[in-house]
């Protein structure tokens, strides 16, 4: 009797679990978001399940530094996540290894997707032939953060004031940095590099673009790191490091510490400035001989080919990319949908940055900004630059010669 | 290996109380460990040489290439550079570590009240997690506001950018690792020193040997088995170091030893075949060095029990 009852219970349990397994699908969504951004994604996942009770979404956060590593190994091991974020610099590698699902058939058949709303520049990276392999959620130009207190201490006009006078160029950037260093010897004037040299390809690209330089030529067939414009940008950083107005490689100084006058980064960096004790603001990148240009950072949602629930995963991407949801993620990521980007609601979405500054540094810059399109083996190419970085910035270095060497090493990788 | 103790009678070494059932229980106890060992240790060890014969760039499927990965190594400038850096690294690290450890052990063998304190102070870095240790040093070795360069500045010396300039990056890594590990070797040497019987020293003294002669002719030979073991373990440890070097320098050229190169090929470029070939290279280097020393030990290791 006892046995019979137990067996019966087991049986019902088993049948229940198989029944629910047939109905309910669980998606794994990977992201490198942390803090409030991650919380928002988790909330969105719960909301999605409420609307689609048969689909459960688990949000999994992986640190950015090991994101591609984990994903690639999981894909190769047959435990690929279903859907997730893809960074612009990794997208070509995933696309060339056919790890991303073409979303175009779904987009075409679904009128609510309104792909025409996306800024054309935001889609170039994700399109290949007829296919669309991801939908961007972030359209984030690099701009300049500056420490108002340090400018006041140095008694010089702020970048915003210079901008109003149309004098905000790289010469002014360099001169302001030197003035700050003079007034505050324990601080640095400014930098175009990030703390981690591996992520060098950010602010300094804006300086390269506005002097006519670049990393590659148009079809990515040869290295142009030794072009005049690029050399100019690197020479400026070399000068600033030599004079002490910019931190040397490896100096553990961040803008958030209050010891850096000017720092180039994206909107998402503002998340680290919520508790700082100094006053700051943002301006567009300075202008150079070829005008005012900057780098457009991007990231997108993609469905991975290894997913066993591609249909449901695409549904989730469609939900996240809908105008209503993008309005909410816009607080952290400037939205590629033009209808949202140009709305007042967006300009007032960031509690830390005033609407007027956001309009100047994000909206006005977006049109002239350039997305960085990289080859599939960007990891190797990037590493060549990183390995040579200390030689390039050495005070005695001939920057042009060093960058020639860099190109000699990169060109064979571009075959 | 060469012990000649009389064989222990079987009946004594294996009490047979419960028969095969108790053996089963024993096996069950060992099973979880054996499973883990097989899956996570022996399996990968066997897989690596096979993987090294394939061109396998994740997430693509592997393709047979035979010795392709090995021939590629010979022309790869990055790898030849890494071999050179690794040789320099081992040559700088191992003697510094051993000589320093021996010297410290000799100093601490002197019976004073402070000896206990110094022993603890010198050993404490050993128990600090390596990555935490390296992170702290990254701050200490900053070019402008790092502690080391600030202190050097007070002396009127402009310090280098320790972690980003050749050859300083390698030197900084060696110093940081020696300080971390020297305590362990020191403790082992201290144990060996205290095992040297006092009568032997006394006898040598009576024979008129000075302290220098006592050390080189009596103490050191008596310690030689310990020194031998320590040298081998330190060399293997040096060839295996990865985490602190990576955290300190990010694997830049100045300190990119073979382990860092292997990691880069495997987990940055996802070239698993090539990374496997490189790990074989490192394994062969360790094996050769250990074998050579094993052969040479007859020349300088005495009193092995």
UniProtKB/TrEMBL annotation, chain A:
<keyword id="KW-0472">Membrane</keyword>
<feature type="signal peptide">
    <location>
        <begin position="1"/>
        <end position="21"/>
    </location>
</feature>
<keyword id="KW-0564">Palmitate</keyword>
<keyword id="KW-1003">Cell membrane</keyword>
<keyword id="KW-0449">Lipoprotein</keyword>
<keyword id="KW-0732">Signal</keyword>
<protein>
    <submittedName>
        <fullName>ABC transporter substrate-binding protein</fullName>
    </submittedName>
</protein>
<dbReference type="InterPro" id="IPR050490">
    <property type="entry name" value="Bact_solute-bd_prot1"/>
</dbReference>
<dbReference type="Pfam" id="PF01547">
    <property type="entry name" value="SBP_bac_1"/>
</dbReference>
<dbReference type="InterPro" id="IPR006059">
    <property type="entry name" value="SBP"/>
</dbReference>
From TrEMBL, chain B:
<feature type="transmembrane region" description="Helical">
    <location>
        <begin position="214"/>
        <end position="239"/>
    </location>
</feature>
<keyword id="KW-0812">Transmembrane</keyword>
<dbReference type="Pfam" id="PF00528">
    <property type="entry name" value="BPD_transp_1"/>
</dbReference>
<feature type="transmembrane region" description="Helical">
    <location>
        <begin position="272"/>
        <end position="292"/>
    </location>
</feature>
<dbReference type="GO" id="GO:0005886">
    <property type="term" value="C:plasma membrane"/>
</dbReference>
<keyword id="KW-0813">Transport</keyword>
<feature type="transmembrane region" description="Helical">
    <location>
        <begin position="83"/>
        <end position="108"/>
    </location>
</feature>
<dbReference type="InterPro" id="IPR035906">
    <property type="entry name" value="MetI-like_sf"/>
</dbReference>
<keyword id="KW-0472">Membrane</keyword>
<dbReference type="InterPro" id="IPR000515">
    <property type="entry name" value="MetI-like"/>
</dbReference>
<feature type="transmembrane region" description="Helical">
    <location>
        <begin position="24"/>
        <end position="54"/>
    </location>
</feature>
<protein>
    <submittedName>
        <fullName>Sugar ABC transporter permease</fullName>
    </submittedName>
</protein>
<keyword id="KW-1003">Cell membrane</keyword>
<dbReference type="InterPro" id="IPR051393">
    <property type="entry name" value="ABC_transporter_permease"/>
</dbReference>
<dbReference type="GO" id="GO:0055085">
    <property type="term" value="P:transmembrane transport"/>
</dbReference>
<keyword id="KW-1133">Transmembrane helix</keyword>
<feature type="transmembrane region" description="Helical">
    <location>
        <begin position="168"/>
        <end position="193"/>
    </location>
</feature>
<feature type="domain" description="ABC transmembrane type-1">
    <location>
        <begin position="83"/>
        <end position="293"/>
    </location>
</feature>
<comment type="similarity">
    <text>Belongs to the binding-protein-dependent transport system permease family.</text>
</comment>
<feature type="transmembrane region" description="Helical">
    <location>
        <begin position="120"/>
        <end position="140"/>
    </location>
</feature>
């Amino acid at each position: 009797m006892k046995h019979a009852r137990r067996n019966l219970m087991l049986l019902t349990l088993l049948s229940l679990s198989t029944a629910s397994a047939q109905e309910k699908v669980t998606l794994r969504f990977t992201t490198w978001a942390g803090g409030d951004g991650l919380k928002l994604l988790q909330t969105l996942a719960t909301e999605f399940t409420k609307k689609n009770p048969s689909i459960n979404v688990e949000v999994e956060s992986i640190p950015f530094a090991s994101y591609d590593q984990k994903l690639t190994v999981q894909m190769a091991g047959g435990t690929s996540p279903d859907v997730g974020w893809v960074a612009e610099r990794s997208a070509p590698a995933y696309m060339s290894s056919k790890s991303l699902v073409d979303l175009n058939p779904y987009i075409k058949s679904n009128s609510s997707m309104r792909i025409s709303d996306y800024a054309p520049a935001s889609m170039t990276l994700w399109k290949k032939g007829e296919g669309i392999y991801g939908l961007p959620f972030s359209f984030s130009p690099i701009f300049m953060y500056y420490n108002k207190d340090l400018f006041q201490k140095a008694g010089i006009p702020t970048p915003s004031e210079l901008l109003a006078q149309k004098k905000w160029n790289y010469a002014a950037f360099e001169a302001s940095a030197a003035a700050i260093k003079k007034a505050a010897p324990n601080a640095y004037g400014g930098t175009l590099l990030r703390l981690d040299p591996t992520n060098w390809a950010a602010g300094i690209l804006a300086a390269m673009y506005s002097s006519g330089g670049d990393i590659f030529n148009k079809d990515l067939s040869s290295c142009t790191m030794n072009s005049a414009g690029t050399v100019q940008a690197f020479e400026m950083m070399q000068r600033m490091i030599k004079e002490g107005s910019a931190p040397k490689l490896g100096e553990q100084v961040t803008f958030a510490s209050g010891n850096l006058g000017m720092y180039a980064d994206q909107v998402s960096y503002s998340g680290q400035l919520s508790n700082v004790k100094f006053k700051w603001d943002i301006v567009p990148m300075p202008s150079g001989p070829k005008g005012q240009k900057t780098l457009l950072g991007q990231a997108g949602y993609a469905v991975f080919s290894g997913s066993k629930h591609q249909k449901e995963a695409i549904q989730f991407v469609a939900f996240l990319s809908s105008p209503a949801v993008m309005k909410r993620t816009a607080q952290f990521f400037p939205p590629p949908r033009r209808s949202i980007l140009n709305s007042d609601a967006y300009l007032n979405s960031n509690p830390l940055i005033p609407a007027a500054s956001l309009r100047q540094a994000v909206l006005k810059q977006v049109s002239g900004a350039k997305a960085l399109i990289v080859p599939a083996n960007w990891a190797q190419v990037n590493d060549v630059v990183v390995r040579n970085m200390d030689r390039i910035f050495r005070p005695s270095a001939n920057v042009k010669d060093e960058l020639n060497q860099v190109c000699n090493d990169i060109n064979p990788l571009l075959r | 290996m060469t012990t000649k103790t009389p064989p222990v009678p079987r009946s004594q070494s294996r009490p047979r109380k419960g028969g095969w059932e108790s053996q089963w229980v024993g096996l069950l106890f060992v099973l979880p460990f054996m499973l883990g060992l097989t899956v996570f240790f022996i399996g990968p060890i066997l897989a690596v040489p096979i993987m090294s014969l394939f061109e396998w760039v994740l997430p693509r499927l592997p393709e047979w290439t035979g010795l392709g990965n090995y021939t590629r190594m010979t022309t790869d400038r990055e790898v030849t550079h890494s071999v050179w850096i690794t040789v320099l690294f081992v040559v700088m690290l191992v003697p510094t570590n051993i000589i320093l450890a021996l010297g410290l052990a000799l100093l601490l063998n002197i019976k004073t009240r402070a000896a206990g304190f110094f022993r603890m102070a010198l050993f404490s870095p050993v128990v600090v997690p390596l990555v935490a240790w390296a992170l702290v040093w990254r701050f200490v070795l900053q070019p402008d506001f790092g502690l080391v360069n600030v202190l050097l500045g007070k002396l009127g010396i402009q310090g280098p950018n320790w972690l980003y300039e050749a050859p300083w990056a390698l030197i900084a890594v060696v110093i940081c690792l020696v300080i971390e590990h020297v305590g362990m070797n020191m403790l082992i040497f201290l144990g060996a020193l205290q095992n040297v019987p006092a009568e032997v020293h006394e006898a040598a003294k009576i024979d008129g040997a000075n302290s220098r002669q006592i050390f080189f002719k009596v103490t050191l030979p008596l310690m030689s088995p310990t020194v031998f073991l320590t040298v081998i373990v330190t060399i293997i440890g040096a060839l295996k170091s990865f985490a602190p070097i990576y955290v300190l320098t990010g694997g830049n050229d100045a300190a990119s030893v073979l382990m860092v190169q292997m990691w880069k090929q495997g987990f940055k470029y996802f070239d698993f075949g090539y990374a496997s070939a490189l790990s074989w290279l490192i394994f062969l280097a360790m094996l050769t060095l250990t074998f050579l020393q094993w052969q040479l030990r007859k020349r300088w290791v005495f009193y092995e029990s």
